[in-house]
Amino acid sequence: MSSDAMRPTGAESLIATLEASGVEVCFTNPGTSEMHAVAAIGRAQKMRSILALFEGVATAAADGYGRMAEKPASTLLHLGPGLANGLANLHNARRAATPIVNIVGDHAVSHRDLDAPLASDVAGFAAPVSKWIKSADRVEDVGAAAAESVAAAMGAPQGIATLILPANTAWEHLPEGVKLAAPPVRVAVPPAPDARMIRDVAAALKSAQKAVILIAGKALLEPGLQAAARIAAATGARIVTDTFVSRQTRGAGVPAIGRIPYFPEMIVDDLKGTDLLVLAGTKAPVAFFAYPGRPGALTPEGAKVLSVAAPSTDAAAALAALADELGAKGPAPLTQLKRMERPQPGALNATNAGAVIAHHLPEDAIVVDEGATSSGAAFGMSGTGPRHDWLYLTGGSIGMGLPLALGAAIACPGRKTVCLHGDGGAMYTIQALWTMAREKTDVVTVIFANRSYAILKIELMRTGVQNAGPQALSLFDLANPEISFAGLARSMGVEGIRAETVEEFEAAFSSAMKRKGPVLIEAVI
Amino acid sequence: MSSDAMRPTGAESLIATLEASGVEVCFTNPGTSEMHAVAAIGRAQKMRSILALFEGVATAAADGYGRMAEKPASTLLHLGPGLANGLANLHNARRAATPIVNIVGDHAVSHRDLDAPLASDVAGFAAPVSKWIKSADRVEDVGAAAAESVAAAMGAPQGIATLILPANTAWEHLPEGVKLAAPPVRVAVPPAPDARMIRDVAAALKSAQKAVILIAGKALLEPGLQAAARIAAATGARIVTDTFVSRQTRGAGVPAIGRIPYFPEMIVDDLKGTDLLVLAGTKAPVAFFAYPGRPGALTPEGAKVLSVAAPSTDAAAALAALADELGAKGPAPLTQLKRMERPQPGALNATNAGAVIAHHLPEDAIVVDEGATSSGAAFGMSGTGPRHDWLYLTGGSIGMGLPLALGAAIACPGRKTVCLHGDGGAMYTIQALWTMAREKTDVVTVIFANRSYAILKIELMRTGVQNAGPQALSLFDLANPEISFAGLARSMGVEGIRAETVEEFEAAFSSAMKRKGPVLIEAVI
Description:
Two copies of one chain form a homodimer. The first copy, chain A, is α/β, with parallel strands linked by helices. Chain A has helices spanning 3-6, 10-20, 35-43, 55-69, 79-96, 122-126, 142-154, 167-171, 195-207, 222-235, 264-271, 315-325, 350-360, 376-381, 401-411, 423-426, 432-439, 454-462, 469-474, 485-491, 502-514; strands at 25-28, 48-51, 73-78, 100-106, 132-135, 160-166, 211-215, 238-241, 247-250, 258-259, 276-280, 304-309, 365-370, 388-392, 417-422, 443-449, 495-499, 519-524. The first copy, chain A, has three domains: 3-171, Rossmann fold (3-Layer(aba) Sandwich); 195-325, TPP-binding domain (Rossmann fold, 3-Layer(aba) Sandwich); 350-524, 3-Layer(aba) Sandwich (Rossmann fold), CATH 3.40.50.
């Protein structure tokens, strides 16, 4: 073996650099072009590799991990098509502003122009979801690019850094003098709150009759909520958050806030009469979808709109500065513990299932919510339960929940993760169950099995379609044939339980809360 | 109701135009922005809509349909993320040069700039796989754009035409004077073979010592194979095809040709000494992946390379012209029927499973091959069986086979479709089984369950990785936990059978060949 071959490979430089920058987990579905990266991970000191059977599982797991760990996981995907399979959940992660180091293997640089079957425009696929894209085309640049990718993912605004790793720069050996691990790159810090804007907003709040403060992003963790609650107590302003946010801390001991409803006419009603709309870490509300003859921009008529923190800045710090400016020093009013009561026995529906979930939800749970039309009850009923974090479907692309829960559970092994999922969306990334079994993650999944894309039946009416007819309606129907989610779980090594009554559901859910490890409950509603 | 509202919508114009242009099937997973298109399909006279639980199923099904029907199916996908989920199999379809009308719903034009959660760069996602992209931003243009999309998909070179349909141009009513269905647009015809090139190649073939004719695309259907076989009989040239092609007709009554092997050093060996390489409908061979220290371009050293038909042209016509120029008028030698014999009883493996498949494969079967390391035996042993079509994984993106078989079966309901699949790849789009059950498609799926990404274990050695270690190797291992494919099938309404011996496998496979409807056999090898 030559002295050259004794030196580390580019792939080893990649993994060592990621470790030096604090990246500890890699969610992957690798292929031939990633072999040297796989080997480097296999020899790594700290990096934990987690196999997904589909790339959309890997990317959403990285999202769930990032939301809870507040630092990036890496992915390792197989060329353009592997990336493509992960894009929809990267779209959701982009909307959640989750830091992710998204590593995509590519053909060797010399192989790119040959147009081999797997060749494609990798950077083109990545562009719509990435805030940063770089291809490490020389082995000596791999470490620096990796360090830069972590800083890019973590820097404000946080997001997805896509690092393309050609096979040859993974397998080649570092030249003499190039260190194994590149040093971490300084992370861009969001600008401090604008003092003048804080004063202006404070003045506006004092004179407003009906002020609403719309907060999102990191402001939904405890410090931001505390500051917001102090402002509310001092000014009477109402604090609300967007319909779908990355992560919100809720429950006993945490200030409670409102939530913008989903349908645009409900948003209009909810905000009617608002004379001041203050934004912190988000934008003015818009309709999720357009509808014939209805407005899409939903800023209340006549309201003054001021922003204390753009989406990319530190909204919690801005709210704290605003509270201080208002002299709102006292402790914020906190939610008092009041557990939901157990429901009456009987046939299961989304409401009594929600009561069971709220009643048994343990302290410090993580709830992943892709429940569509079915999880609203659980959400509402758990607001005064023990403290927990609630994670939402941020980008509207269904099929995020199961792998998001997987990633959240990997980030927080000491906490119980509960995944509330619609049946339609669950079929997108059902393969996540296998990785839950393999990693023995502590995730309890509730599939609300209403055997339909129920939201689409509602939307069909709302969009003004007349006389849709049976062929159209059949496209929202999941009953022919009925899917056994309990059977799917068992086929992938996860305990699967079917529940048709409150009693069956409560027995299954309460038992799963007391144990460790993955369980799926098919809640037939 | 105003007279305006009595006129058809843009969505109805879309569907009526597609029907007028010969599009009969729509594979879809729609959402709110596609509601009016769903309603229009529901009222359509001819368009058949087929629901997929995941967009990668819809796009690969459209690929399978297009390969067999020789005309496009349409898709109907939900904004950028819905398209993103379908991209990997659109990559495979692009490599197969399959005509597809890929319809993607988008936000209303007025809603696009609001950056709602589902907004994304739809055209950006589509670009790497599409030969044609247009957004129909005015209702009066929807019909013309739809007609153009069909012509774009069908015109040489065939491929994917992505038509973006904003929600408002779907729901708005056509202005007075605009016809419901736009007339079909003339399809571009590939140029006629170049007479001078045909003469030159004929002369070169006469003087060559060791000529190889590499054919692909439509040349692999019967007329092209007949012409190629006549050339071979007249000149002694060897006819081969690429490793992975869209569709090849094989078996009794059809000329037999060779196939380029997979690994590059085997290609080099196979082509060694070739002094003339004639290309018809394809390019000179390249390595599927790059390997350290090995060449990627595999044109045999010293060989003269001539092309009678570029990939985008009519290779069958060029071969017929070449055969005529050579005076090769006689009937081509045809494969004589010789069914594979039944294997000995015993434990199941890929070889004896292949023999069972080859022995029982009925006349006119369609075989979809994503068998990776396991389907080579079935391929080799079926070459002298009854006539059939063999469809390959064209773009290297695994997870195409199950939905490709679904689409092929929809195109050819009178023929038996057999899907040969690796277990790793099958987990990518396992949701296809549900649509098979729902549509009662006549697809018999064989999952070669070797509990690993077996090809990657081979590639790990080939890429020169030393001492990979257990953590790296575990990333190719699907045994922890073991997946029950029979259970997955049953959970989605498809008959699922597990076979561990030749006897069990033969009983299951031969029985499935004699019945109609979907069956999955988990072949434990």
